[in-house]
Structures are given as structure tokens and as C-alpha cells.
Design goal:
Blueprint: E1 5-9, H1 13-25, E2 29-33, H2 36-45, E3 50-54, H3 62-72, E4 78-82, H4 87-95, E5 100-103, H5 108-142, H6 151-163, E6 170-173, H7 180-189, E7 198-202, H8 208-216, H9 233-236, E8 241-245, H10 252-264, E9 266-267, E10 276-277, E11 281-286, H11 290-296, H12 301-307, E12 310-313, H13 324-339, E13 345-346, H14 348-355, H15 362-376, E14 381-382, H16 384-390, H17 397-407, H18 411-429, H19 434-441, H20 445-454
Amino acid sequence: MTAPAVLVVDDEASIRRTLREILEYEGLTVDEAANGAQALRKAGATSYDVVLLDIKMPRKDGMEVLAELAEVRPELPVIMISGHADIKTAVEATHAGAFHFIEKPPDLNQLLVTIRSALERGRLVLENRRMRQTIAERRENELSPILGKSPAIRRIKEIIARVAPTEARVLVTGEAGTGKELVAQWIHHLSPRRDEALVAVNCAAIPAELIESELFGHEKGSFTGAIKQRVGKFEQAHRGTLFLDEIGDMSLSAQAKVLRSLQESNITRVGGDRAIAVDVRVVAATNKDLRQCIEEGTFREDLYHRLSVILAHLPPLRERRGDLSLLLNHFLEHLAQRNGLHQKSVAPDAMERLTNLQWRGNVREVHNVAERLLILGHPAEITLSDVERYVHSGNEPGDALGALICQYDDIGDFRDTAEKLFLTQKLHENDWNISRTATRIGVQRSNLYSRIRRLNIERDNDA
């Protein structure tokens, strides 16, 4: 195991020699620098684990060296040493990034304890950096790519690349299933906030009477059922990114509070009276025409302007049909790996038929169709007959139902599958608004929730 390396920087040779003897006796590797310029050259060429730095030196003093080391090697612990110590100087050195401050002549035990602490701190910083890099790489590998070569998708990628490093708010628009949440994920992933939380809220899926508690939290006893304090999504996203999906479905009262939070950078919990500072970058998304909503009086114009600093519009798949084969093949490969199945190709006539479909569910529908064809289609290649049998074109409900009936012998399995397909489709049609879907299919909201849980229905965010 290599001994930790220490750089001793002092203009007095006798001090450097004494420190070298002490530290080498303790098993450390020691290098010396007689002035600030020499110290900076050596620190740039050698990976030291800790630096002992004298403050009073001719030409370039220790404080200047400390500032430059903080620029080029911010993780390197620097212990300042001075025979002219005072509290003001110690405070300045600490604020400038010094690990510790020791007076000359240094107490031997204090010096060794401080060096060991500095080495441990440096080790933890490096481990933390490696861990964050590993996590970032894993996130990027797990994060779905934004697929497509059409001009519209190239434009979206350009917007993401340019806006992600900034603090600008982004409003993502587009039909259901086009991949709005994926755009938000990439903006967060490529931003300086990537190591903090990305918190997503589906405003359409939360009842109007609960949305404020969900966003801002509540104090214990603030309303019936508030048996304990709750931290809201704004606080959870502190220093990170808050994704407000389907912002067009948010109530006007909640819109007013969101606007105030964006203006003042703080929130107040429901039932509370204390302002809580929050540092949040907001990305919002909607499938509605918010300008029309403003005219109808259902969306605040001032909030719209706060959210739409940058506008990013995702086109429906029918406007970029040339991207279909790329999307379909990607999903077939991904799903084959995830399910332990052999990857399948798509016959040219099958791909032509698929390209001409309406794809009202957009990219999300492509994902679902790919999974169905992978599991149910011919073993080696997806054929035209597979498409005709298993893909509902939107014009032949009888054929689709007949294909489903042919797949099952057990009535229970058929019923569960048919119910899952029906509910998933209706949820898609209603943008996953639980209340609206329940009303339209004639069931209680609680009943719909229990069916979703029982059938393991999940919203798919691939795009």
C-alpha cells in the first residue's frame, strides 16, 4: 500500500527539514517546496494527499497559494501553518478553503492528528466523487434516450443541451405519450442539479382538494386526517428539480400559490404560518393549449409567463413517421433484454403497415405494441400477419377483440387481460386523470384505484 504523500511548503529550510523528519518517521512520503510558485508547480504535477502551507512567504504568500490550489485541486486538504497567527487570519484561511490552521511551532500530537483527519477527509471526498460518478453513469445508462432523427426531435435535443446547464424554467408541451417527462429527466440529468432529487408531480392525478398539501405539505392538525406533519414536493425538491406534469389541470388556487412560491422562493405549508425557503428549478409540462386556457379563465397568464421562459414542443408521432422504425426496434431490443427473450426483427411489409397507423397514443403506444408483438408474434420475425392480428389500428375493434379471445383458454386470464387493456387505454385517453377516467367509465374513484393496483397497471414514461 502506497504511503500518503505530503507537500511541505515553507521558505525556511530548517522548518521543512524538521517537518520532513517528523512525518517520515510516521511513515508518510514527504516532498518540499521553498516558495509558492514551486508549490503550485509541484501540486500540478504530483497527486499529493495533503499540503502543509506556511502563510508568510516572500512574493507569493500562503493565502494566494491556497486560493490557486482551491481552483486547480479543490479536493486537496490544505493545513495552514503560521508563526504570526491571529484569529482574523485563521478565519480568512478557513473561509478560503483551508482544512485547518496551526500555529508555529506546531504541537507534534496536534499536527499528526490534524494530518490524519485531513487524509481521512481527502479519502472520503475522493470516494464520494467516484460514487457520484458511478451513480451518474448508472443513471445515464438507465435513462431512456430521446430517439429520432426528424428535424423536430433534433430541435428538442438542441434545446435540452442549451437550457439544461442554466436555471431557466422550461414548459414542455405535446400530446399524451410523446415523452414530456423524459425531456424533464434529461434536463435534470444534464444540469448542475443532477446530484439532487428530481421530484415529479402529476397534477391531473391529484384531486383539487389535495393538490396544495401535495405540493406544499401540511402541518399536523391543519385539516381532518392530517395526523402528522407532511413535507411537500417543493421541499423534497430543494436544490433539485420539480417536474409539474399536466400543469394545465391544476386548480386556480394552487396556481396562485405556485406563482407566489416561484416569485419569492419560499413556501408555506397548509395550516402553517412560517415561510420555508426552497431552491427549486421547475420544469412543467402539459398536453393542453395554455393560451386557450388563459382565454377561458382556467389558467393564470402570469403563471404561464413564469413557467414558459423556454418552450419545448414535442410533436405527435404522426408528424414524424420516419422515426417509427427507430423507436420500434429500440423498444424490441430493450424489452427482449428485460424479459430474457430473443430479439426480433420486423418484416418490411409489417413495418410499412405499422408506419401507416394513426398512433394516437404516440411513443407510449409504440412501446406497448412492441411488447405485445415481441411476446405474441412469430419467434424469429414479426410478420404482417402478426401486425394484423395483434395491433389494433383504431378502425377494427372486432378484429382486435377476436385476436384477444384467441389468445386465452382460461376465462379468468382473459378477463384480467381484457380489463387491464381497457383500463390502460381509458387512462391514456384521459391523460391519467384518475377522477376523470373513473367518471367516464362509470366507477368510483376508489374502485378504479383498487383495480389499478390489482392489475399492476403502471404509467409508462418511455419516449
